[in-house]
Amino acid sequence: MARNFTHFFAHESCGFCTPCRVGTSLLADMMDKLEAGKGSPQDFTEIQELNRHLFKLSHCGLGHSACNPALETIAKFRPAYERRLLHKNFVPAFDLDASLAPARALTQRDDAAAHLGDDHE
Ligand code: SF4
């Protein structure tokens, strides 16, 4: 049900703003991955991060609320999600922020909202 809602949001996104246009599609892909039994706990973290970006950067309520079905069901039915995980203890080896640090220093551009995994609010 939550996966179907995320596909609804991806389909209904008008495309006016990039965070919603791209983020709702990414969210639908993540929910497909979880439904297919190919997820890891990192996906829960990534959905929270995606929600933070969508809430801050989307123009209207569709983008603001697109992650709610996923987040609410993960919060209330987490064991049901966990039973479908392929990897229970997956920790990503690639650190995007560390990899981008030299480029950010070189260009002197460091948008706090573009960081993943840190809470810059
Ligand atoms: S947040 Fe609203 S305005 Fe922006 S792309 Fe989504 S539906 Fe369109």
Automatic annotation (TrEMBL):
One of its GO terms (molecular function) is metal ion binding. Its cofactor is FMN. Keywords: Iron, Iron-sulfur, Metal-binding. Residues 1-44 form the NADH-ubiquinone oxidoreductase 51kDa subunit iron-sulphur binding domain. SMART domains: NADH_4Fe-4S (SM00928). It holds the Pfam family NADH_4Fe-4S. InterPro entries: NADH-UbQ_OxRdtase_51kDa_CS, Nuop51_4Fe4S-bd, Nuop51_4Fe4S-bd_sf. This is NADH-ubiquinone oxidoreductase 51kDa subunit iron-sulphur binding domain-containing protein. It comes from Noviherbaspirillum denitrificans.
